[in-house]
Amino acid sequence: MIEIKIWGRGGQGAVTTGQIIAIAALHDRKNCQTFPNFGVERRGAPVEAFVRIDKEPIRLRSQIYAPDIVIVLDPTLINAVDVTKGLKDGGTIIINTSKKPKDLNLDKKFKVYTVDATAVAMEIFKRPIVNTPLLGALSAITKAVSLKSMQLTRAR
Amino acid sequence: MPRKKKTKKVRKGNGNNPEITVGAIITKPGSSMANKTGSWREFRPVRDPSKCIKCGFCWMFCPDNAISEEFVADLDYCKGCGICAQECPVKCIVMKKEEK
Amino acid sequence: MAKQVIEASQAVAEAVKLCSPSVIATYPITPQTHIVEHIADFVSNGDFDAEIIDTESEHSSMSACIGAQGTGVRTFTATASQGLALMHEMLFVASGMRLPIVMAVANRALSAPINIWNDHQDSISERDSGWIQLYVESSQEAFDTIIQAYKIAENKNVLLPVMVCLDGFTLSHVWEPVEIAKQSKVNSFLPKYNPIHAFLDPKKPITQGPVSYPDTYMHFKKMQHDAMKESIDIIKKVNSEFRGKFKRGYGDGLIELYRMNDADYALIGMGTLCSTARVVIDNLRKEGIKAGMIKVKTYRPFPSEAISKAAKGLKGIAVIDRDISTGYEGALYSDTRSALCDGKSEVGTISGFITGLGGRDITPQHIEKALKDMIFGKGTKEDWLF
User: Fold this and answer.
1) Which residues in chain B are contacts of C206 at CB distance < 8 A?
2) Mean pLDDT over residues C269-287, rounded?
3) Is A113 on the interface with C (CB under 8 A)?
4) DSSP string, C315-355
5) Most buried of the four, A125, C13, C279, C340, by CB within 10 Å?
6) Where do the DSSP E strands lie in C120-252?
7) Which of helix, strand or coil describes residue C181?
């Protein structure tokens, strides 16, 4: 089972990101589950969303405390919350930032990837839709879901 | 489940009382007509037609709908509350004791 | 039909759409709101024809359902927490008038302190309201149970309202794959509504909701109780008929057993915690502990015979309650113990655990602790697992 945690700020699309990953996983003929860390959501407040992907039916319904993959939609969250909290040793973290991974001072036990998703989104969409570039990065880096399935979710 | 058993169960519940229906439904309308509340009366309204101005106040105020459009009380249902006498603007209705 | 990744709230709405109630009363309350929002979308898109009544309170929502059902149409509403509490008096009216209303409850804690997250206190507090209560653990089960609920409620030997309880947020806001049944298949399982309860018809006038004096009231209550008991058979029948048609079923409709064939110990619970418990039980089996689970799907009527039979000869049982009868113990624990006092089940220890109140996440560790505390003799009547 792959467990993914998505960090974002309210309104940025963390929950939608989780939903797109889950729908793509179903296209990959896998089982999936996604849910937000339910709170009193407000625009701008840090929010978490979770995704589970597995070949077997998913029965675990607790929150995700030890993710395999973390996706960070907003660079400012790195200073606001502990984004690597619970991330498994050797786990992958994909961060939207213009910085290089080595400049982020994250623990060496994690595989750190950075994508300037805001710049990509502004160039292509002319709007800061940061989750789309990050979803592409997730497919490319982790193979958690295939890029083909990720593209299929657009047809919805 | 055989039907026989079911009937038995329902009987147990309603104590063989045919008036006990599922959901407490009254299946025959107009059951309040059977309840002749006139027997509750201690005072009877007596109208003096010569004083009556046919204003209809008594008819309008009667809480039991027991006064006809000719302003005559239906003694089968009149409970003798006296509201008609109270409201009558010309005081043509007086309440008379039933018991002699 | 292929599966779709949708929110459990939408799964409920999809099921309601397929059952086509004519009147849906709506009043928003977290975490239920998505259910009626989806239904409102369906109705405004013309997916099915229904009258949506936006009421001014949940008390009015239930009143609207009672009034509408009393004219002989299928109805639906959904609520949670304070909303369900506000409906309280009307719940008794619905069941007393024997109206087969179906309602989804997205279980949420009750104030105070105010809390929007999941526990079972809201519906457990209405367990004596004369409503059948069904608890579900997955989106698919929520979908399937709504369809079954109408069939159970509308059975001529039942005619009681049904509450379908799904854990707020912990299930209601989870997106997972759900198989949406075809309309034709649902139609063949649940025919077009033909009211068999008394309803208002100008050609056949009746009186609904009259006064009942001391000489009759108790008989009505006994009839209601008998119907509730009779529903045990109907729930089983509907579940097996559903399984025949849709190839999915949930135990015998009353309880669902997991790895109970050779179990020494069992967990008893309701709702999503039973899903997580399956993982824990698999792990305990690897440790050599013969654990299993009796999932209570039908909480009212309480399946005491089924539980007693399933529990016969067990060395121990751990009951997890997501509620508390303040000053005593968990409600499910009380009911289970009472069911097992029939002199037939011969169960060793029965321990009770309170956890997951107000959205406290129930992790595999909580469930493992409950089972192990019970097994190693550390369980009591009400251990609080924080």
Assistant:
1) 25-27, 29
2) 98
3) no
4) SEEEEEESS--TTS--HHHHHHHHHTTSSSS---EEEEEEE
5) C13
6) 132-135, 162-167, 175-179
7) coil
The answer to whether the CB of A20 falls within 8 A of the CB of A49 is no
CA nearest neighbour of A1 among A62, A42, A45, A48: A62
- Identify which of A132, A136, A133 has the alpha carbon closest to the alpha carbon of residue A146: A136
The pLDDT of A101-116, averaged and rounded, is 95
Q: Among B3, B12, B25, which would you mutate to test the C interface (most chain C Cβ atoms within 10 Å of its Cβ)?
A: B25
Distance CA A21, CA A51 (A): 7
Separation of alpha carbons C289 and C54, rounded Å = 52
Q: Burial code of A8-33, b = ≥16 C-beta within 10 A, e = fewer? A: bbbebbbbbbbbbbbbbbbbbebbbb
A77, two tokens? 């969250």
Fold of B36-100: Alpha-Beta Plaits (3.30.70)
CB contact under 8 A, C177 and A65: no
Q: Which domains does chain C have, with CATH numbers?
A: 3-246 (3.40.50.970), 255-385 (3.40.50.920)
CA distance C143 to chain B (A): 28
Taken in order of first residue, the domains within chain A and their CATH numbers are: 2-155 (3.40.920.10)
What stretch of H or E contains C37?
helix C33-44
Q: Which chain C residue has its CA at the smallest distance from A24's CA? A: C5
Is some CB atom of chain B closer than 8 A to the CB atom of C159?
A: yes
Is the pLDDT at C123 greater than 90, yes or no?
A: yes
Tell me how many degrees the CA angle C191-C195-C200 measures, rounded to the nearest 5: 150
C224 pLDDT more than 50: yes
Name, in order, each residue with C-beta under 8 angstroms of C7's C-beta and a sequence gap of 6 or more: C34, C139, C172, C173, C174, C175
Q: Is the pLDDT of residue C28 over 70?
A: yes
Q: Domain boundaries in chain B?
A: 36-100
SS3 of residue A105 by DSSP: coil
Query: What is the rounded CA–CA span in Å between residue C300 and residue C135?
Result: 10
Higher pLDDT, B13 or C179: C179
Q: Are C359 and A38 an interchain contact pair (Cβ–Cβ within 8 Å)? A: yes
Three-class secondary structure of residue B89 per DSSP: coil
d(CA C322, CA C358): 9
ipTM for the complex? Answer: 0.95
**CA A156/CA A20 separation, integer angstroms:** 10
Each residue's pLDDT tens digit, B16-35: 565 789 999 888 888 788 88
**Contacts of residue A32, Cβ cutoff 8 Å, sequence gap at least 6:** A21, A22, A23, A25, A26, A51, A52, A53, A54, A58, C5, C175, C176, C177
**pLDDT tens by residue, C298-343:** 999 999 999 999 999 999 999 999 999 999 999 999 999 999 998 8
Q: Residue C76 is inside which H or E element, if any?
A: strand C75-79
Structure token pair of residue B98? 């039933």
Question: Residues 178-197, chain C: which have Cβ within 8 Å of B?
Answer: 197
Residue A24's identity, in one-letter code, is A
